[in-house]
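Hi there, hope your week has been kind to you so far. Would you mind checking whether the tokens look sensible for this chain? I owe you a coffee for this, so here goes:
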Amino acid sequence: MTWLGKVVGGTFGLFMGGPLFAILGAALGHQFDRVMGNVGLLQTDFVPGTQSRVQMVFFTVTFSVVGHIAKADGRVSEAEIKSTRAIMDRMGLSEDMRKTAIRLFNEGKRADFPLDDTLDQFRSECRRRSSLLRLFIELQLEAAYADGVLHSAEEQLLLRICDRLQFSRFEFHAIKARMEAELRFARTGSQYSQWRRERAAGGRRPSAADAYAVLGITPSASDQEIRRAYRRLMSQHHPDKLVANGLPEEMVKLATEKTQQIRSAYEVIAKARKF
């Protein structure tokens, strides 16, 4: 049973508190109100630091902040809405999970969305799970690039998010550079989205230039540097490792997709260099 099933099934007895509780409560509406009737029944699955609780926190923050960033430039574009729905499709969300994600997205668009307080609680709940914070930033960047451009207001907001989470700006710019390289390769936002789908489906292998960009290195890198970059990225995105750290079950497909992309890029380079 997923964390959402535990919540709406009436077994959620821990008053989580803080902005995340308020955001999730607003998204679930009357279902959450009914569950809170069991507040005296402490559900050990949701004790701070446990996997189920971190899964709930990660899902709640991811989609609400995506909604907040989408509104950063003043309006939510159709491309941003499609991108968010595409992420849901790639995750293979159930109907209930999809509805919850959409409601969280809408909560994030509200003018009174408590971004700083939400991020503070997210960092506290994740503790030292750096791999989850990295994946969170990657998903936010991917959503921000939905229309093929990272607007200034969106980038400034993303940097603010990194600072609040104590996530390295250097690493943020490295992730951003990889995505921009991929976008330049595809030339347009629509082609970029199609390219990502083709890569995920295994229907298209990246070019050599593309492969270097995926690994975050340049063609001048040594064989040893290439292997080191490959091992680092595979470790950072390994689905089993992320799940153990609290990645929601619904997001495993995204992590698997990323490792497939990394492996495919490495294979292209290895073939070209004959090692």
Notes: Residues 252-273 form the longest helix (22 residues). The two ends are 44 Å apart (CA to CA).
